[in-house]
Amino acid sequence: MKSIVTLIAIILATTFSSQAQNKTIAVGYPAITGLNIDASIAAKLLRYELIKLDQYSVYDEYDMKDAIAKDPSLQSECLSTKCLIRMGEELSVDYTISGSIDGIGDKIVISLKMIDVQSKKLYRTEMIEFADQENELQRMIAIVLRKMHNMQSDAVLVDRLEFKNDVVASKSVGKMNNSGPRIGVGMMTGDFREFATRPMDQGGLDITPTLSMIGYQFEAQYVGTENFSGLFEFLVNINGLEQGQFIPSISLMNGFRFGKAGWEFAFGPGFSLERRSNGFFDTKGSFGNAGDYFSDQDWADYATRNYNDPDQYPEFFTGGQFNRPTVTDIDPDYNMDTRFLDRRGATHLSTMFVFAFGRTFRAGALNIPVNIFYTSRRGGGLAGINVGFNVTKSKTKLYRN
After folding, report:
1. Which residue has better confidence, 14 or 341?
2. Which of 32, 228, 307, 361 falls between 20 and 30 A from 387, CA-CA?
3. Which CATH superfamily is domain 23-161 in?
4. Quick check: helix, strand or coil at residue 260?
5. Which pLDDT score, from 0 to 100, does residue 269 have?
6. pTM for the structure as a whole
7. In this structure, are residues 100 and 79 in contact, taking their beta carbons and an 8 Å threshold?
């Protein structure tokens, strides 16, 4: 009994499939706006994709030639339901299909409707928005037709082509120009902390090792979606103004912002100006207080004052001429080979590497970034926090196909 039921089911399925395949359909020229494709080419693409569905006998332009010769409006102006019914009656087909393909802003909208000629009613309709990729129009049409007929399309292909209504769409990547002031505070570490607290007569700054920071950040978004942004950040800072210091710095950073909460981190090189001199620290207190700094000039002055005595230090005189000793001559543990921070020394370009992590709080177009940071350089660095605000001033397209 089971075998008989199965056989009947197969026969019925085959019969219905055969009937479906025998259904005929004609394609009207779709309305095209904002795109470079011709309506006749779009109609061909519709026919090709209908044939691939393997559900209809699709009339081509030659099958429709006589009917169009009688009524040219069936070719160029047949978009309404009434006209599509008339076309179907002229051609004696079961269905007609047409619609519109519109390029609107940064998307392509495909809307198709299918008419049942016998019942003179709208049979099926479908509309999908796609990203602006006109060269993928045939695949877009295939996706719409398959959805209209409740057939699955490749999920990866659909995801790649569908319009995504993000802040910055993945296909039409935009660029946000966010710029604004920054204020903050930083704590000097390592050699920089020592330099800050060192007395001025030893080349130090004689200040507290905590610096105020005021600057301006230029920020541009170069890639992203609603949940991810790639940023270029250019930050100019002036540090230490409240303590009578002028310490400039420039940072060039690549940043990444994640999620709607605005968490972000950035990293990149930084540049500043600093002064250094060759010298040594008298860690043993051999020439004064333990820990005092002697630059090469400090040592020259010290040696001249203390060793320019031929009676006490005859070894430093030749033919009555004073030969100033080096610090190594006096104490082999010391030398002048190392360069240390010294406000009296020569100016040099200093490089560093900047790390920052924080969150951007948003209030409409206003962004309030709060970041902790660390600038790492030879011998120490600067750790702190800065706060600012910037406003989304502009959004421009990077490219458009």
Report:
1. 341
2. 228
3. ABC-type transport auxiliary lipoprotein component (3.40.50.10610)
4. coil
5. 97
6. 0.54
7. yes
CA 139 remoteness from chain centre: 28
| pLDDT tens-digit map of 139-182 | 999 999 999 999 999 988 898 898 876 544 444 344 445 678 99
C-alpha span between 308 and 310 (Å, rounded): 6
pLDDT digits (tens, 9 = 90+) for 297-336: 999 999 999 999 999 999 999 988 999 999 999 999 999 9
Tokens of 381: 């660095």
Q: Please, how many CA atoms are within 13 Å of residue 84, restricted to the half-sphere of its CB? A: 26
CA distances (Å), origin 361, targets 217, 224, 259, 298, 369:
16, 18, 12, 52, 6
Distance CA 359, CA 261 (A): 7
Q: What is the DSSP letter of 400?
A: -
For the domain covering 174-277+345-397, report its CATH number.
Answer: 2.40.160.20
Tokens 């972000």, residue located: 264
For residue 48, what are the contacts with CB-CB under 8 A and spacing of at least 6?
138
CB 212 within 8 A of CB 206: no
Return d(Cα 80, Cα 75) in angstroms, integer. 12
Q: Which of 160, 134, 130 has the alpha carbon at shortest distance from 42?
A: 134
Cross-strand partners of 197? none
Instruction: For residue 278, give the nearest of 205, 345, 201 by alpha carbon.
Output: 345
Cβ atoms of 273 and 348 within 8 Å: the answer is yes
Q: What is the mean pLDDT of residues 116-136?
A: 93
Q: Judge contact between 254 and 267, C-beta under 8 A.
A: yes
Length of the chain: 401
Give the residue among 210, 185, 209, 230 at the shortest CA–CA distance from 372.
185
SS3 110: strand
199: its two tokens? 């007395």
Q: Where are the domains of the chain?
A: 23-161, 174-277+345-397
Residues 190, 192, 194: CA angle, nearest 5 degrees: 80
DSSP letter at 34 equals S
Per DSSP, the three-state class of 112 is strand
Structural tokens at position 203: 């080349």
**Residue in 33, 40, 47, 37 with CA at minimum distance from that of residue 68:** 40
Q: What is the largest CA-CA distance in the chain?
A: 132
